[in-house]
Known about the structure:
It is a single chain. By secondary structure, this protein is an alpha+beta fold. It contains six helices and eight strands, in the order ααββαββαββαβαβ. The protein has helices spanning 2-11, 16-27, 58-70, 99-108, 132-141, 164-179; strands at residues 35-42, 48-55, 75-76, 86-95, 115-119, 122-127, 149-156, 183-188. Strands 3-1-2-8 form a four-stranded antiparallel β-sheet, covered by helices on one side.
Amino acid sequence: ALKFVIERAKQAQVPKHVIDKALDKAKGNTDETFTEGRYEGFGPNGSMIIVDTLTSNVNRTAAEVRTALGKNGGNLGVTGSVNYMFDNTAVIGVEGKSADELLEILMEADIDARDIVEEEELAIVYGDPEHFHEIQEALKAAGIEEFEVAEISMIPQNEVTLSDEDKAKFERMLEMLDDCEDVQQVYHNVDLEA
């Protein structure tokens, strides 16, 4: 998990000193202790949302997440109320290869993928999270150096389309969650392109 997070930070061009500072905090070289959290809730009109956090103050974070949802037509649910509608999935996207080429590479390495699709410029492999590093290593061994996407994500089983008014509320909710420094990742089932 740590290797994955460091790779993701490097992909996002996070400076080395920021990564090192975060590692020091995680090692306990500071007085702060951090707790991972997952909040599940509902947005406007049946939309579902999962918020992953890392915080030194659970009460503050819970209040911020609850406020972001509550002010925008949503509410916090109990643990497990939304999670079952999402699939925990390894997502690896590559530019310059076709889905067939990636399938061939993975078959030669004897690795199963849930799905391989082409979206715009990318060929994307969806796989089991426990095979994330195996998939990455097989692609690297085949000469693929750069990944446009490399993450473990919560993929919704079904997406919902919201009215313009509800969509505006939902986008405000996402902005409020984005402004919360303890929020690490937000997953939802809203089709924002519709």
